[in-house]
Amino acid sequence: SPGLYLIATPIGTARDITLRALDILTSADMLAAEDTRSLRKLMDIHGVALNDRPLLSYHDHNGDKVRPRLIDALAAGKSVVYASEAGTPMVADPGFDLARTVVEEGYPLISAPGPSAVITALTLAGLPTDQFHFAGFLPNTASRRKTALGALAQVPGTLVFYESPKRVAAMLRDAAEVLGTARQAVVARELTKKFEEVLRGTLSELAAICADRTLKGEIVVLIGRADSSAVSEADIEAALLQALETLSVRDA
Ligand code: SAM
Question: The Tetrapyrrole methylase domain covers which part of the protein (predicted)?
Answer without folding.
Answer: 4-207
